[in-house]
Amino acid sequence: MNLDFSPVFADFDALLRGAVVTIEVTAGALLLGCVMGLLVGIGRLNPQRRVIYHLCSTYLLFFRGTPLLVQLFIWFFGLPQFGVTLPAFACGVLGLGMYSGAYVSEIVRGAIQSVDRGQTEAARSLGMSSGQAMRIIILPQAVVRMIPPLGNEFIALIKNSALVSLLTIHDLMHEGQKIISVSYRSLETYLVVALIYLALTTIAMVILRKIEHHLRAGGMVQ
């Protein structure tokens, strides 16, 4: 078997442009996922607020219990049946973000619950409302504790973003498939695409480790 990478490297610029799109989709999805995760995570802290709690639990059940690919197809192919047509990029960010939010919500909930309850009681004794105690005392500590697991979620999103190529988004995977359609060098193309994904996740891991190390050095992460 002879490997020929020349057709792949001839269009390497296209792969790099696709990698940029992959980063953009991932970053947008992570931002949306953090917002949804924060709202849902806080919403599931108090079962006594039954409506909010059950809505958040239903969100969690659906987005964690169904395949990401099916969810992406619902956004891309399902919404137009209700007269709502979004660009493929928006559907990709929305699909990945809502999916990620279900996992981020558990990270948020766990981080908040890991903060000593005595700090909430101390804040209340100072005259703070529950909302003020959460915003000023609890969340800042919880956010620091969320960083390591959020980093893992970011890396998972980079890999899961390959599915958005099925929505005709010109990401790294989509550009690789275009090269294959012309050159018929599937093995070589997928190997190069895999190495680029590996480079993206490795860079992300290095950055996240530096952030975590900095926080540990400052005594902010236990």
UniProtKB/TrEMBL annotation:
<comment type="similarity">
    <text>Belongs to the binding-protein-dependent transport system permease family. HisMQ subfamily.</text>
</comment>
<keyword id="KW-0029">Amino-acid transport</keyword>
<dbReference type="Pfam" id="PF00528">
    <property type="entry name" value="BPD_transp_1"/>
</dbReference>
<keyword id="KW-0472">Membrane</keyword>
<keyword id="KW-1003">Cell membrane</keyword>
<keyword id="KW-1133">Transmembrane helix</keyword>
<protein>
    <recommendedName>
        <fullName>Putative glutamine transport system permease protein GlnP</fullName>
    </recommendedName>
</protein>
<dbReference type="GO" id="GO:0005886">
    <property type="term" value="C:plasma membrane"/>
</dbReference>
<dbReference type="InterPro" id="IPR043429">
    <property type="entry name" value="ArtM/GltK/GlnP/TcyL/YhdX-like"/>
</dbReference>
<dbReference type="GO" id="GO:0006865">
    <property type="term" value="P:amino acid transport"/>
</dbReference>
<dbReference type="InterPro" id="IPR010065">
    <property type="entry name" value="AA_ABC_transptr_permease_3TM"/>
</dbReference>
<feature type="transmembrane region" description="Helical">
    <location>
        <begin position="84"/>
        <end position="104"/>
    </location>
</feature>
<comment type="function">
    <text>Part of the binding-protein-dependent transport system for glutamine; probably responsible for the translocation of the substrate across the membrane.</text>
</comment>
<dbReference type="InterPro" id="IPR000515">
    <property type="entry name" value="MetI-like"/>
</dbReference>
<feature type="transmembrane region" description="Helical">
    <location>
        <begin position="20"/>
        <end position="40"/>
    </location>
</feature>
<dbReference type="InterPro" id="IPR035906">
    <property type="entry name" value="MetI-like_sf"/>
</dbReference>
<feature type="domain" description="ABC transmembrane type-1">
    <location>
        <begin position="19"/>
        <end position="208"/>
    </location>
</feature>
<keyword id="KW-0812">Transmembrane</keyword>
<feature type="transmembrane region" description="Helical">
    <location>
        <begin position="190"/>
        <end position="208"/>
    </location>
</feature>
<feature type="transmembrane region" description="Helical">
    <location>
        <begin position="52"/>
        <end position="78"/>
    </location>
</feature>
<keyword id="KW-0813">Transport</keyword>
